[in-house]
Amino acid sequence: MATVDILVNGRRHSLQCEDGQEPRLRRLAAYIDKRISDLSNTQGQIGDVRLLLMASLLVADELSDAYDEIKRLRALLSDGARSGDNEAAQAIERVAERIETLAARLESP
User: Fold this and answer.
1) Going residue by residue through the chain (109 aa), what tens digit of pLDDT does each one get?
2) pTM for this structure?
3) Between the CA atoms of 59, 65, 67 and 72, what dihedral angle is there, to the nearest 10 degrees?
4) Which of 18, 48, 104, 106 has the most CB atoms in a 10 Å sphere around its CB?
5) What is 64-102 written as a DSSP string?
6) Phi, psi of 50 (to 5 degrees)
7) What gap in Å lies between CA 8 and CA 90, rounded to an integer?
């Protein structure tokens, strides 16, 4: 197991992860730190626990939206096999763009 030091809301944390997962953990921590920083700028320093909770809810909301989009696309693909592939292809393109946007957010420092 590897140990990774991350910085979230100005506080250093040491976390363990599987060997080789260190860059991913750092990238995810940076994403959470950015969300907390954004919240802190709009809400003020309302406490670490509350900021972490709010950031977690924002990320969970993004994930929920992504899951809903996946379900919608699966339904479209199922229906698209019967009604035509053009609409399904356009929907897949929209989702791919959304996933790329989310991935870019996660990867940017």
Assistant:
1) 999 999 999 999 999 999 999 999 999 999 999 999 999 999 887 888 999 999 999 999 999 999 999 998 888 777 666 655 667 677 888 888 888 888 777 776 6
2) 0.66
3) -170
4) 106
5) HHHHHHHHHHHHHHHHHHHH-SHHHHHHHHHHHHHHHHH
6) -65, -40
7) 38
Angstrom distance (rounded) from CA 66 to CA 62: 6
User: How far is it, in rounded angstroms, from Cα 68 to Cα 62?
Assistant: 10
Answer whether 87's CB lies under 8 Å from 73's CB: no
Give one DSSP letter per residue of 16-77, joined into a string.
EE-TT-HHHHHHHHHHHHHHHHHHHHHH----HHHHHHHHHHHHHHHHHHHHHHHHHHHHHH
Beta bridge partners of 2: 17
CA 63/CA 59 separation, integer angstroms: 6
Tokens linked to 4: 């990774």
Query: Phi/psi at 47 (nearest 5 deg)?
Result: 105, 145
Other CB atoms within 10 Å distance of the CB of residue 22: 16
